[in-house]
């Protein structure tokens, strides 16, 4: 916590330029809001392939983590975690318990996972059920969920508008040769309502293509699928390259149907490693999963614990995600700098989400994309300003500005036309850094942020207490 506080304190410097009236801004020390933030990586380590499910009692993490079943980590705040056993070693499996995913289906919880089949030494997909999200999970079959004659891993679930379940899984490269190469391909198949059998023939959805997805040489991967439904479309997220490579990263594809055809996004990868002149800062971000908290979308993923010596030792990371107006998916990461915890948990709302200021007709400054890793996607101010006007007063207590990595800028912030402050941002080497201003709650009808010179900005966010919360 001492390290987090030190980072937060150097992120922002504000100086009132003229006296504030009784109704104007009253600044608070940054330490007063330090509990609103959390940093990557989280304390869940020596794992891989993490997923998070949010329930009324908090958050539950499941991940690859050992040869004898699966653990789960419970958390109220995504900062502190308590570990327990979720699935014990199974009679049909010899080990390699990988990539568990848990869903609330009907009146129980279902877990899909990978394990190695004793019968033939091949990787297979298993299924287990529990009455509680933390388990214990029990296997109703006593054998793999399916045997398609080849190794399968990384199974995930989605449902269509009629509630029909579909399983998306990976045909593992260990038993899939394409000419002289070994490749992991992603397939989809309809399931029976009880999830215990296939209801049709598997369909090939994705395979490694293009320069970025084939950097691993003659062994190639499209793996770690996760599906999110948005605006009537199915977004299939997947990881590419070897898990031990810094280039292990997340890509996205979109379809009108759970079984495709899928079109890969032109700006892939959407989550990738970060390095600067000092070396690699974040290595191998991948195998992600999505969950919601209130109206915010988040993704969990792993990174290499030792970025300069990447291996199977990985750690949990969590960042925000979303979709642009044109339908392309984005991830606000990978980050190392402190980020706001889920606003719903903090009793806060984003007061600028979806707003459009005159200088930014496309809404890039308020779409939730902080552009933590891709400088080219930032709004560029050249001695310009962003203006926001609310039809009705909103209650606010914090302003955050997300600049490009290493960016320095000076800006003047004006609330309600009568309070001006100078914000000096001196840059930071931590991916995802923000300049923020904390103040006592006040009613805001207008806000102007004026930049001196050129500034590359990913997001401007004003937050305040959720007036609808009990």
What's the helix and strand layout?
Layout: H1 2-10, E1 14-16, E2 37-38, E3 45-55, E4 58-64, E5 69-75, E6 82-88, E7 93-105, E8 108-117, E9 123-130, E10 152-159, E11 165-171, E12 177-178, E13 181-190, E14 203-206, H2 210-213, E15 219-230, E16 233-240, E17 249-255, E18 263-264, E19 274-276, E20 279-282, E21 286-293, E22 296-304, E23 314-323, E24 329-331, E25 339-340, H3 343-346, E26 348-350, E27 379-382, E28 385-403, E29 409-415, E30 419-425, E31 435-451, E32 454-465
Parallel strand pairs: 13-15
Antiparallel strand pairs: 1-30, 2-25, 3-4, 3-23, 4-5, 5-6, 7-8, 8-9, 10-11, 11-13, 12-13, 13-14, 15-16, 16-17, 17-18, 19-20, 21-22, 22-23, 23-24, 26-32, 27-32, 28-31, 28-32, 29-30, 29-31
Please summarize what this structure is.
This protein is mostly beta strands. The protein has three helices and 32 strands.
């Amino acid at each position: 916590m001492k390290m987090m506080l030190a980072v937060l304190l150097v992120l922002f410097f504000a100086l009132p330029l003229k006296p504030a009236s009784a109704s104007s801004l009253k600044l608070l020390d940054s330490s007063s809001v330090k509990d609103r933030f959390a940093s990557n990586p989280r304390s869940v380590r020596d794992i891989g392939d993490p997923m998070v499910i949010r329930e009324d009692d908090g958050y539950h993490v499941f991940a690859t983590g050992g040869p004898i079943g699966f653990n789960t980590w419970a958390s109220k705040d995504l900062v502190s975690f308590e570990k327990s056993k979720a699935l014990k070693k199974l009679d049909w499996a010899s080990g390699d318990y990988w990539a568990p995913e848990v869903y609330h289906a009907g009146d129980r919880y279902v877990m899909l996972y990978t394990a190695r089949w004793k019968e033939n030494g091949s990787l297979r997909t298993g299924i287990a059920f529990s009455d509680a999200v933390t388990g214990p999970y029990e296997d109703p079959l006593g054998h793999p969920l399916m045997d398609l004659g080849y190794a399968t891993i990384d199974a995930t679930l989605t449902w269509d508008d009629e509630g029909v379940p579909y399983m998306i899984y990976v045909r593992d490269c260990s038993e899939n040769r394409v000419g002289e190469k070994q490749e992991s391909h992603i397939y989809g198949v309809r399931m029976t309502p009880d999830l215990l059998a296939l209801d049709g023939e598997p369909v090939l959805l994705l395979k490694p293509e293009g320069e970025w997805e084939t950097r691993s040489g003659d062994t190639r991967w499209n793996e770690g699928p996760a599906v999110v439904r948005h605006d009537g479309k199915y977004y299939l997220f997947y990881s590419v390259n070897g898990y031990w490579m810094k280039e292990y990263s997340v890509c996205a594809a979109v379809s009108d149907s759970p079984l495709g055809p899928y079109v890969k996004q032109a700006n892939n990868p959407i989550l990738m490693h970060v390095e600067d002149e000092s070396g690699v800062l974040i290595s191998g971000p991948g195998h992600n999963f999505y969950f919601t908290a209130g109206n915010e979308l988040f993704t969990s993923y792993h990174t290499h614990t030792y970025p300069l010596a990447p291996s199977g030792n990985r750690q949990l990371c969590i960042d925000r995600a979303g979709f642009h107006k044109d339908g392309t998916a984005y991830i606000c990461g990978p980050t190392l700098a402190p980020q706001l915890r889920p606003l719903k948990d903090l009793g806060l709302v984003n007061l600028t989400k979806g707003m459009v200021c005159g200088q930014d007709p496309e809404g890039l400054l308020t779409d939730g994309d902080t552009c933590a890793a891709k400088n080219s996607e930032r709004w560029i101010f050249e001695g310009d300003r962003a203006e926001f006007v609310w039809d009705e007063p909103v209650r606010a207590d914090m302003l955050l500005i997300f600049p490009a990595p290493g960016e320095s800028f000076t800006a003047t912030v004006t609330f309600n036309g009568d309070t001006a402050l100078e914000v000096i941002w001196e840059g930071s080497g931590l991916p995802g850094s923000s300049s923020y201003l904390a103040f006592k709650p006040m009613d805001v009808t207008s806000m102007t942020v004026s930049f001196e010179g050129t500034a590359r900005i990913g997001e401007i966010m004003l937050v305040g207490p959720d007036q609808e919360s009990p």
